[in-house]
Amino acid sequence: MRNKGIADKTIISISSHKDLKTFNMYHQVDNKAKVNDVKSVFENF
User: Could you state, in order of their start, the residue ranges of all structural domains in the chain?
Assistant: First the structure.
């Protein structure tokens, strides 16, 4: 959900996590997201 742009507070509410620190333990950034993010920054250079 996070990779689809859903707000952290919404995901935390749905998943019943108590805080952002606990929630972040479960989120891993995959390589596809890394590549897409880098491309979005540098594609117009």
Answer: 2-42
